Amino acid sequence: MSALPRAHELGLIGCHICGQVCRDTGIDDAACPRCGAELHRRKPNSCARTWALLIAAFLLYIPANVLPIMRTVSLGDVDDNTILSGVIELWVKGSPDLAVIVFTASIVVPMMKFLVMGTLLLSVHRGTNWARAQRSKLFRLVEFIGYWSMLDVFVVSLLTALVQFGFFSQVEPLPGVVYFGLTVVLTMLASMSFDPRLIWDCKDEDE
């Protein structure tokens, strides 16, 4: 089965900032006529930078889960909670909806991003053509959920509503929030550094 022509075969290059399709002039440091960004057939050192950011994010995710993320004061009891114990605390104190949101934003989403980005990087390194369309969809999913990843960082602010309703008398952020925030930022930078066009660089078996 004949494959569709690639962009470089047609003399075209896409801007990775605004998506403008430009004529590939072959000139170094050529700029996008729409946004002025430098044009690259592929993002320079994409895999190396993505690996570095992803590993750094994973290392920071460990203290983010071990160190307490918030302190709650309720009926005279003072509790320093990690992410998981905070989820349990919210559930026990009568806020299961918020507990599910925090668990999803702080546990499910980061682990899924680590798993998906690691899978994409390994598949690119191996040069496999396995499920390329599905891997591209996974990358778009990671990009989409990245916009909601900071939700847990603002959870202490959201808990002020619970203070007003009497569930807690006081809520304070603790150092775990900082590590989690750094984890979120680094995973977002990792997904931005990864060039999804690398998924399609390997040759089709039928070509």
TrEMBL record:
One Pfam family here: PqiA
Source organism: Dyella dinghuensis
Keyword Repeat applies: no
Annotated TM spans: 51-70, 98-124, 145-168, 174-194
Cell compartments where the protein resides: Cell inner membrane
Protein name: Paraquat-inducible membrane protein A
Keywords: Cell inner membrane, Cell membrane, Membrane, Transmembrane, Transmembrane helix
Main location: membrane
InterPro entries, alphabetized: PqiA-like, PqiA-PqiB_transport
One CC-aspect GO term: plasma membrane
Membrane among keywords: yes
